[in-house]
Write a structure and sequence with these properties.
Helix content: over 70%
Structural class: mainly alpha
Radius of gyration: 20 Å
Strand content: under 5%
Distance between the termini: 45 Å
Number of helices: 14
Largest sheet: none
Oligomer: single chain
Order of helices and strands: HHHHHHHHHHHHHH
Number of strands: 0
Length: about 220
């Protein structure tokens, strides 16, 4: 390490070891900004802090720094972590690693009882980008949660799923639940293209402001 990196590691360690929530988060961010792999043990220690904010910052850091051991550490950690917000963050962190070894962990999280965890796990699979996830995700087209379903269609679209357009178009035009329609509008916007534009324009007069807002966006 350079002298500057050593100084950053020392400062981050002091903040993390202080035990103060705000200072700990600052310490984690210092390690992320400096890209210091040598700070792995410090970040891992933060996963066991009682404060949710610290756990979330630590999980995000492990994903963004792409530590070689990140998947194994996060996979073991999520087995003992019950908070849905933290679990959802861990799912995204696993995706951010880009490591194919995260696939079986995310496959299990697709069955999580919390919809945020499921939705984030779908998005994480899209980040990793393995066509094998198609078989994992197809059953979730029937998920009752609008965000889960929209995320599934977007990821399947990445792998040539042309029929996903018709799924989203139908979801936007015929679903009674406004949140499902709003999610469909968001997903169509993410996919882009002339066909999606035509569909979105037809929903500019949707009765729900949440849907119209997503259409305009």
């Amino acid at each position: 390490m350079t002298g500057e990196e050593t100084a950053v590691l020392k400062e981050a360690g002091e903040k993390i070891n202080s035990g103060d929530e705000e200072r700990v988060v600052v310490g984690i961010n210092l390690l992320v900004e400096a890209g210091l792999g040598e700070g792995l043990d410090l970040i891992v220690s933060c996963l066991d802090f009682p404060e949710k904010k610290v756990k979330i910052a630590a999980a995000r850091a492990m994903g963004s720094l792409q530590f070689p051991r990140a998947v194994a550490i996060l996979a073991a950690y999520i087995e003992r972590e019950n908070d849905p917000w933290v679990r959802a963050t861990v799912a995204m962190a696993l995706g951010a690693t880009g490591d194919f070894r995260a696939l079986p962990v995310l496959a299990n999280l697709l069955q999580d009882e919390n919809s945020r965890v499921r939705a984030n796990s779908v998005e994480a699979l899209g980040q990793i980008g393995d066509p094998a996830c198609v078989n994992m995700l197809t059953p979730l087209l029937d998920d009752p949660n609008n965000r889960v379903k929209a995320n599934v269609t977007m990821v399947l679209w990445q792998f040539g799923g042309l029929r996903m357009l018709s799924v989203l178009q139908r979801m936007l035009k015929t679903t009674e639940n406004k949140w499902h329609r709003a999610s469909a509008a968001y997903a169509l916007g993410e996919i882009g293209g002339f066909q999606t534009m035509t569909t979105l324009l037809g929903s500019l007069s949707d009765r729900a402001p949440e849907v119209r807002r997503n259409v305009i966006s």
